[in-house]
Amino acid sequence: MDLRKENKALKYILVTISFIFLGVFLILPLIYIVITALKEGIAGYVNAVTDEYAIKAALLTIEATVFAVIVNTIFGVAAAWLITKYAFKGKKLLSTFIDLPVTVSPIIAGLIYVLTFGRQSSLYPILDSYGIQIIFAVPGIVLATIFVTFPFISRELIPVLTAQGTDEEEAAAIMGANTFTIFRKVTFPHIKWALLYGIVLCTARAMGEFGAVSVLSGHLRGKTNTLPLYIELLYQGYDFTGAFAASSILVVLAIIVLILRLVIEKHGRKELDLNK
Q1: Is the pLDDT score of 202 beyond 80?
Q2: Domain 52-275 maps to which CATH number in 1.10.3720.10, 2.40.50.100, 3.40.30.10, 3.30.450.20?
Q3: Which of 20, 53, 60, 152 is 20 to 30 Å from the Cα of 144, by its Cα?
Q4: Is the pLDDT of residue 119 over 70?
Q5: Of 170, 186, 153, whose CA–CA distance to 86 is shortest?
Q6: Per-residue pLDDT band at 69 (split at 50, 70, 90)
Q7: DSSP H or E run through 91
């Protein structure tokens, strides 16, 4: 504390650098988005965000996000519980694979699915015989979104479950509680805020996914264009007002996610302080 008090000059330098960085890379772009989106007035903005294709793109984005969050929540809880509570061969390998989407480019992820389910794949005739289309269709977009977001929830839960240990769960098992009861009464109360935090991060990442979805979507307007892809389409067509108006929808969604994140962090810290 004395060191921090004595280095006031350093503190002001760090504060200045932080605010300049945030201003250049965050605040100014957001201001530009708002100004450009309202360039043709409120009526022009409303027409842009209520356009038929904009609504379809937003609904598809929400659909892919919901599927990704549901699947990744199930996987994240199961994987974190398995890695932290059980000893088995291949644990490190599983943990490494969970981190794979963080290290692999989303474009590469999209190409992987194209090679796996595309026309040149050995799986394509089987899927086609059942009328299942993955590439250039909504299922491909959902798969891509799930792939790029599945580490977020498990990586929030693993440190919490590791710190919790197994003593309480072993005591509950000795007292005759079954596995589901142990998870519901002992494990879940410790991870609920981390789980919610992971869900929020997963949601934010899923809404903004572009690379993998771009490869798999086929850019079919009104069918496979998510909101980020729709924004790119408008921008390339020199419809800057429409592009930035659509971008403002993602900004609003990001702000909502940020507020949820702050609320979750606040309640999580409060509960942690009470437990201490």
Answers
A1: yes
A2: 1.10.3720.10
A3: 53
A4: yes
A5: 170
A6: very high
A7: helix 91-98
